[in-house]
């Protein structure tokens, strides 16, 4: 192990690299362009780059990729990108046509044509449809792939923007319909309308024919909150205007706006989750034990319900009923309903299954659906206004498929199946457990050759935060560019994620964050113990919170790894709240402005722990100028600090568009993917490939 080095805890005034936080300043961008040039020379200059780029692009834009869609009023809607449609098509077809091998698609919006016409590379960010005909929508368009979007009203039947219709400038505001002449606006246009995280603080009603500035406020949150929101929710033909004050990622208050204008708070705890309304019942989950009125104990990983109509009429909560009792190592992934039936997607020891719930005179009953087992099965789409629902199935070696039902899951049929993208005949997927530092058993998956006899280069991926689970999934690019070479892929289900429900997440929350890092290191050590790989041949990868994970792994346990990929990361944890929207994550990490919380953040913040004399493996940091979710300053400063400390093997690459998730042009995504696999192979297999 490298020797322990005390952290270099610079205050903002002492940080010589603060200038790199200026997203678009000339000095910062000049530095970015120089770094990009060096990284491209190293990675795109590799003789294998062009072939890898073409392979990645071909798989990302293949015409036989599954067109995942959702159904409304007899049409299936889909967003599609391929080589000819770089920015994509929003399109639709009939349900009958969708089920055929070659559906007859009708283009609603051609985003390449729109972008060429308007001179802006518009990225589709979603559409809110108008009930009950769904022929109008509030269309969101991002100018750079970031989270901030422009909104315009669009008529699907005429394939045109509505002249003089609703339109709002680029912001992080949200929009939904109240009726044809009224839009619910969660506003974040002006400073006074935003929370400290930069998200909406005020909900307004905006009438057709009036200026946006004339929209009437109906609900407000606090500046310290994460955000507020408003939406029209449906239960059959009944409609309810729900207003939400999201205090932080894991707590909030939910209100129903009555016809009188009264905002009545739902009688639920702050940490309620997975709310659904069905047949007069509100179904919900909780993140911690809640002793409901009447003495019923609601437990995490269970699902519960109460009589919503009765509560609206009388103000009395009434009896709490159990919909789904909690079970060991089983957690709720998703809850949604058609018009008549509630579907619950579950994770059972990191494998998926789906049940539906119905309420009768004897209470709630659960029925499992006859879906494939031992893989990742979940809800792909659900029509809350009808009876159609579809499910996805995949695992590491099985291409994705779509299983469709038009009758609430009674009849199931596979309607789409992606062709195999790599030769999996000699591969095996296995699940193991590693024992973490505190004794906790941490599951992980390994995909490798069935006949592996000696250690091979392996890529270990992790996330471990925000209740997000990592589930088995097929990835053609990974299979083609990594697994087919005889290398191994490993996916770690460390604490902080949502694989085993709220308690698994809370075990790595705030001052317990080190548990997630220890879990990841334990998996790495277990891989070596089992002879699957060696430290010199083991690469790690993670993005966003996973970028924090790999950044900490670099600075805490560099001897365990041969290459480190740090993507769109958080890395300066003593300053992350100063880089918008970092303040929104304090419920996850803590508040560095509070001395006691800054103390635990300081124990692991990677930026402050870069050491001059550490023996770090090769590092590649990536980010995007347009990332308005995790500021590019984190990756910029970390790369600059590593290089200034003499670590010449630290590479940096920043794309100018695509936002946090790399949306938009698939050619850009393919280029980065090819560079990352070249970086890994150069580092883990002994040189240029």
From TrEMBL:
Keyword Protease tagged: yes
Record keywords: Hydrolase, Protease, Serine protease
Molecular function via GO: oligopeptidase activity; serine-type endopeptidase activity
Record has Manganese as a keyword: no
Any GO CC annotation of this UniProt entry: cytosol
GO biological process: proteolysis
Domain of life: Bacteria
Gene3D superfamilies named in the record: alpha/beta hydrolase (3.40.50.1820), Prolyl oligopeptidase, N-terminal domain (2.130.10.120)
InterPro entries in the record: AB_hydrolase_fold (IPR029058), Pept_S9A_N (IPR023302), Peptidase_S9_cat (IPR001375), Peptidase_S9A (IPR002470), Prolyl_oligopep/macrocyclase (IPR051167)
Domain annotation Peptidase S9 prolyl oligopeptidase catalytic: ranges: 481-685
Residue intervals of the Peptidase S9A N-terminal domain: 13-416
Name of this protein: Prolyl oligopeptidase family serine peptidase
Originating organism: Ensifer canadensis
């Amino acid at each position: 192990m490298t020797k322990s080095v005390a952290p270099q805890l610079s205050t903002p005034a002492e940080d010589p690299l603060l200038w790199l936080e200026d997203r678009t300043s000339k000095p910062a961008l000049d530095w970015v362009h120089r770094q990009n040039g060096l990284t491209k020379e190293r990675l795109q200059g590799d003789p294998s780059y062009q072939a890898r780029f073409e392979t990645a692009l071909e798989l990302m834009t293949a015409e036989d990729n599954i067109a995942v869609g959702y159904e409304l009023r007899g049409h299936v809607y889909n967003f599609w990108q391929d080589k000819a449609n770089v920015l994509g098509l929003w399109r639709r077809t009939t349900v009958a046509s969708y089920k055929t091998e070659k559906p007859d698609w009708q283009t609603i919006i051609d985003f390449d044509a729109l972008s060429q016409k308007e001179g802006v590379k518009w990225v589709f960010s979603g559409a809110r449809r108008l009930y009950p005909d769904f022929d109008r929508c509030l269309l969101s368009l991002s100018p750079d792939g970031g989270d901030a979007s422009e909104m315009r009203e669009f008529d699907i039947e005429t394939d045109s923007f509505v002249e003089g219709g609703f339109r709002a400038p680029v912001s992080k505001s949200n929009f939904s319909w109240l009726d044809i002449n009224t839009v619910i606006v969660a506003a974040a246009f002006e400073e006074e309308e935003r929370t400290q995280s930069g998200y909406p603080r005020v909900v307004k009603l905006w009438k057709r024919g009036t200026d946006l500035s004339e929209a009437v406020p109906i609900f407000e949150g606090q500046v310290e909150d994460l955000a507020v929101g408003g939406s029209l929710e449906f239960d059959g033909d009944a409609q309810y205007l729900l207003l939400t004050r999201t205090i932080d990622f894991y707590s909030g208050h939910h209100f129903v706006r009555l016809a009188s204008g009264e905002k009545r708070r739902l009688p639920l705890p702050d940490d309620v989750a997975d709310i659904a309304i069905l047949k007069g019942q509100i179904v919900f989950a909780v993140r911690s034990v809640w002793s409901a009125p009447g003495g019923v104990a609601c437990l995490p990983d269970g699902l519960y319900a109460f009589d919503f109509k009765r509560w609206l009429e009388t103000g009395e909560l009434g009896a709490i009923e159990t919909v789904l009792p909690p079970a060991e190592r089983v957690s709720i992934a998703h809850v949604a309903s058609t018009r008549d039936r509630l579907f619950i997607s579950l994770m059972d020891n990191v494998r998926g299954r789906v049940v539906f719930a119905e309420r009768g005179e004897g209470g709630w009953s659960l029925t499992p659906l006859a879906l494939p087992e031992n893989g990742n099965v979940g809800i792909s789409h659900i029509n809350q206004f009808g009876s159609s629902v579809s499910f996805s199935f995949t695992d590491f070696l099985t291409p994705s498929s779509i299983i469709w039902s038009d009758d609430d899951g009674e009849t199931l049929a596979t309607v789409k199946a992606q062709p195999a993208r790599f030769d999996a005949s000699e591969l095996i997927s296995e699940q193991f457990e590693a024992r973490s530092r505190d004794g906790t058993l941490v599951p992980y998956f390994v995909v490798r050759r069935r006949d592996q006899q000696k250690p091979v280069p392996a890529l270990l991926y992790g996330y471990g935060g925000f209740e997000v689970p990592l589930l088995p999934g097929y990835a053609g690019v990974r299979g083609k560019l990594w697994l087919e070479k005889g290398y191994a892929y490993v996916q770690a289900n460390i604490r902080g994620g949502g694989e085993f429900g709220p308690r698994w997440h809370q075990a790595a929350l705030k001052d317990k964050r080190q548990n997630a890092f220890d879990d990841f290191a334990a998996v790495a050590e277990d891989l070596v113990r089992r002879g699957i790989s060696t430290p010199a041949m083991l690469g790690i990868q993670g993005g966003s919170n996973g970028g924090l994970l790999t950044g900490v792994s670099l600075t805490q346990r560099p001897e365990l790894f041969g290459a480190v990929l740090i993507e769109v990361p958080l890395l300066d944890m003593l300053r992350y709240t100063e880089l918008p929207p970092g303040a929104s994550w304090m419920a996850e990490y803590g508040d560095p402005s509070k001395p006691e919380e800054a103390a635990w953040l300081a124990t692991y913040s990677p930026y402050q722990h870069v050491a001059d004399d550490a023996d770090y493996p090769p590092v590649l940091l990536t980010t995007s100028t347009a990332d308005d979710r995790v500021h590019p300053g984190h990756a910029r400063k970390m790369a600059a600090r590593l290089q200034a400390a003499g670590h010449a093997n630290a590479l940096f690459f920043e794309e100018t568009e695509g936002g946090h998730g790399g949306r938009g042009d698939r050619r850009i995504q393919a280029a980065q993917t090819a560079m990352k696999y070249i970086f890994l192979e150069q580092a883990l297999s002994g040189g240029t490939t």
